[in-house]
Amino acid sequence: MGFGDNSAPPSRAFCMPSLLSPKTQRSPLLLAWLTALWLGTLCNWPLWKALLALPETGSPRGLLFVLAFAGIITGVLAALLSLAAWRLTIKPVAMLLLVSAAAGAHFMGTYGVVIDDTMIVNVLQTDARETRDLLSVRMFVTLVLLAGLPSVYLWRTRLVAMGFGRQLLRNLGGVLLGLVLAVVLLMACFADMASTMRNHKSLRYLINPLNSYYALGQVAFKKSSKPRGPPQVVAADAVLAARPDGRKPPLLLLVVGETARAMNFSLNGYARATNPELTKLDVLSFRDVSSCGTSTAASLPCMFSHLGREQYGNNKDQHQENLLDALQRAGLAVLWLDNQSGCKGICERVPNAMANVAASGAPALPEALCDGPECLDGALLHGLDQRLEALPAERRAKGVVLVLHQMGSHGPAYYKRSPAELKPFQPECKTNVLQKCDPQQLINAYDNSIAYADRVLAQSIAWLQQKTPSFDPTLLYLSDHGESLGENNLYLHGMPYAFAPREQTHIPMVLWLPEAGSAVAKSCMRGKLDRPLSHDYLFHSVLGLMGVQTRIYQGDRDFFASCKTKP
Ligand SMILES: [Zn+2]
C-alpha cells in the first residue's frame, strides 16, 4: 500500500528536497502522515525532555524506549489524521493540530505544566489581561517553528485529485497502518511503558497534542451533561442564632489570596522579611494549611463548597449552592469584590462588584493603583466604606461578610503584582519566560508580590479597626493555592492534585482578631497554629463565626468552634 504521489516519478516521490520544493503535488494521505511524524516527534519535545531526565532512560534500552514512544504517538496520530485525509479537510485539520501542538509544547516546555481537564478550564477562563501576561517572543518563535513552517509547506502543496472510493480505501489503509505501527511498538516495549507510566503518571498529560484534545473532550462532555436551571439548594434551613445582648454584629473581611505559598511568608519562618506590616499587628498565622486544588478554577468553587476536597472532587460537576448562598439565606449582608478574572460562578447570586470600577459615591480610582483595567490589590480597599453602606441596612444590622478576591501573586508576570515603590527585593525578573529568569531574580519578584500582599492585608486590618464602634470585626486571609518557582524544574501551578508538589498546595492562612470584644478568643486560637487545616474547614468555620445555624454545619470542621468566648 502506498500513500505517495502516483503521478510523480518514483525517484522524486520520497526524496526530501522534493518534499520541500513548492507547489509539488501530494496525496492528502501523505500530508497526514508527514504531519503525524512532525507532531509525534518535534512537537513532543517536552515529553522527550521529561523522559530523558528519568533515571530509567539512562541506558541504551531507555533510549530505544523513547524512540518507540515517539513511534507509538506518531502511529496513533497518523491513524487519526488518515481519517481526515481528504482534499478538503486535510489542510485545515493538520494546521489546527499543528497550532494547538505548538502552543501546548510552548506552555509545557516553558512552565513545566501538564495539560489536563483542569488546565483546559483554566485556559478557557483566562481573561485578556492574563493572556497578555503569557505572551512572549519565545512563544512566537515556538509557534513559527513548530506550526508556521509546516503550515507553509502544507499551504503550498497541491493535492492530488482522486476518486472517492480510491481515497477512502487508501485512508482506511492509512488508519490500519498507523494502528499496527502503534500496537507493534507498544508490544515491543510494553514492560518499560507500563512501569514508566505507572511510576510517572503525569507523563500521560505531556502527550501532545492528544492531551489537549482529550482534556477538551472531558470538559465539553461535563459541560453538556451539566444540569441546567437553578443550583441544588444547600443549607435551606440556614438561620441566624440570636445574638447575645451587647454583642455587635459580626463583620468578616474574607480575603481570598492568589498564588501565595505559605513557605514565602516570614510569619511562617521564611528568612526574608516578606511580612513586615503583619508582623507588627499581632496576627495569627496558621502554618499547616492545604489547598483544595492547585488552580483557581479548581480551588475557588471547592473552598466555598460544604463538601470538602474529597467529596467535592467526586461531585464537582453538580451545580450546587455555596457558602455565600448560605450566609445570604440566613439574613447576612454579603458582597464579593473581585480584582481578578471573576469568582468562577460562586458569587452569581449575591451582590458582587469588580475592584477596577470605582464604587458609586466614591472618588475615581487613583492612577497609581491602576494601569488600564488592571489594578493592584490596593484597589479592593478603595471606596470600601461606600460599598459597605450600599448593602441593605437590615442585613448589615445582622452581620456582614465581605470577600476580597485578590490578584495576589498571579504569575508568570510576578513583577506586575507590586507597585514600583514597594519592591524591597532587587533585582527583579521582568520577563514572563520564567526559565530564562535568574532563579534569585524570579524569587525576588515573587517575594515583592508577597510583601505587597502583606501591606494590603495590613491596610485591610486598619480599615476593620475603624469599624469596631459598630461591628465585631475579623479578618481571615487564605490563598487559593501555592506556586512552583522552579523547584524540580516546575513553574506556576495546576499540577494534578495527586502529583502536585507541596509548594503548590501549602497555603498561608492569616487571622486577625481585635484585642478585646471578639466572639473568638485570640489566646485560644494562638494555641492552634500548628493544627493541620485545609480549605475543607472554610465553609463550616465561617458559618460558625457568623452564627449561622443549619443541619449541614459540621462542628469538627469549624476551627473557631473550641475558642468561642462567652458573652
Ligand atoms: Zn489561583
Low-confidence stretches: 1-17
Strand content of the residues, in percent? 5-15%
> Averaged pLDDT, please?
90
Our count of helices gives 22
Q: Main β-sheet: number of strands, strand sense, barrel status?
A: 8 strands, mixed
Task: Detail the topology: elements first, then pairings.
Blueprint lengths: L9 H4 L2 H5 L4 E2 L1 H14 L3 H8 L7 H24 L6 H22 L5 H9 L2 H7 L2 H20 L1 E2 L4 H25 L1 H10 L10 H16 L13 E2 L9 E8 L18 H5 L3 E7 L5 H8 L5 H7 L7 H7 L3 E6 L13 E3 L15 E2 L2 E2 L8 H6 L3 H4 L3 E6 L33 H28 L5 E8 L4 E2 L5 E2 L9 H4 E7 L9 H5 L6 E2 L3 H9 L1 E2 L18
Parallel strand pairs: 1-2, 4-10, 4-11, 5-15, 6-7, 6-10
Antiparallel strand pairs: 3-16, 5-14, 8-9, 11-14, 12-13
Helix pairs in contact: 3-5, 3-6, 5-10, 6-9, 7-12
Bound molecules: zinc ion.
Explain what you see.
- This protein has helices spanning 10-13, 16-20, 28-41, 45-52, 60-83, 90-111, 117-125, 128-134, 137-156, 164-188, 190-199, 210-225, 276-280, 296-303, 309-315, 323-329, 384-389, 393-396, 439-466, 502-505, 522-526, 538-546, and strands at residues 25-26, 158-159, 239-240, 250-257, 284-290, 333-338, 352-354, 370-371, 374-375, 400-405, 472-479, 484-485, 491-492, 506-512, 533-534, 548-549.
- It is of the alpha/beta class and 567 residues long.
- The chain has an eight-stranded mixed sheet, with helices on both faces. Strands 1-2 form a two-stranded parallel sheet.
- Helix 3 packs antiparallel against helix 5 (60-83), helix 5 runs antiparallel to helix 10 (164-188) and helix 6 (90-111) runs antiparallel to helix 9.
- The site of zinc ion (ZN) has 6 residues, from loops.
